[in-house]
Amino acid sequence: MSNIIKSNYQNFMVFFTFFFFWFSIQFGSFVEDSVAFLLIVSLGILHGANDLLILSKGKKNKNTYIKHLFVYLLIMLFCVLTYFFSSFLAISLFILLSSYHFGEEHLGEKIAVNSIFNFFYYMSYGVFIFSMLFYESTANVDEIMRELTNTTFTKLQIKFSLILSSFILLVMSLYLVLKKIVDVKKLLKEIFYLGLLFLVFKTSTLILSFAIYFILWHSIPSIINQVEFVYGDLTKKSLLSYVKKAIIYWVISIIGMFVIYQLIPHMSLFSTIIFVVLFAVTAPHTWVMYRMKS
Q1: What would the pLDDT profile of 238-292 be if each residue is shown by its tens digit?
Q2: Enclosing domain of residue 228
Q3: Spatial contact of 211 and 33, defined as CB atoms under 8 Å apart
Q4: For the chain, what percentages of helix, strand and coil (3-state, to nearest 5) are there?
Q5: Which DSSP state fits 27?
Q6: pTM of this prediction exceeds 0.90
Q7: N or C, where is the chain less crowded by C-beta within 10 Å?
Q8: Residue 83: which residues within 8 A CB-CB, separation 6 or more?
């Protein structure tokens, strides 16, 4: 049942990616960014709102759960302190962590060789996604980075990252094909997906481009996997239960986002606030997802 749902969702994901490609051509930046914000603050934040539920799954020993909760909060505190110590370092860590997390979510069930190979393959995939995104929206990246860190990534750095990650991804993919771990058809399908994302990133604003990947290609598949992990199967009842348990943490996140927006005067872009909140929760969420999949 779950395999059928995932197969159907993949078709749904590709269809709506094409839809947003058309959407980005038809509408201006205000409409695009408004839709993007709505997607990120709803499904995007929701997909990380049940981390504590996942940590408690199967933990009959209360002390084990408390220990995991302490580690979770410690990682979050580390992220906040890192941002105040060096905002540029914090954002760089956010990008690297998100890169690995995106790669693990998208490729984890398709490719598993060994821990070292998996790490570099997932990381290079995620860095390639971010590099494409940044390369096509350099001006917007520059604006957000300067507001967050008072510095930015140069066009040359982004281009180098794009070339290096694509080279590593290509070499490792060829290895998978030659060793018959992945067949050529699956590899060509992934190349097609990357080409489609490149077209979307080229025509969309930075925020909508990020939202398209973050929601369609990452958050919803992650929610499906989380529901299956917690409840054993994906049904209407289990999905509703998942959403109900996540609501309180989702509401707290939304309130926190608006409080930050009001209290930090130098952050005039709402998109900047979203990236700050995502950074604070990405590291502990990535750790929870790693534990869930291991």
Answers
A1: 999 998 888 888 887 777 767 766 666 555 555 566 676 677 677 888 888 877 7
A2: 2-293
A3: no
A4: 85, 0, 15
A5: S
A6: no
A7: C
A8: 90, 276, 279, 280
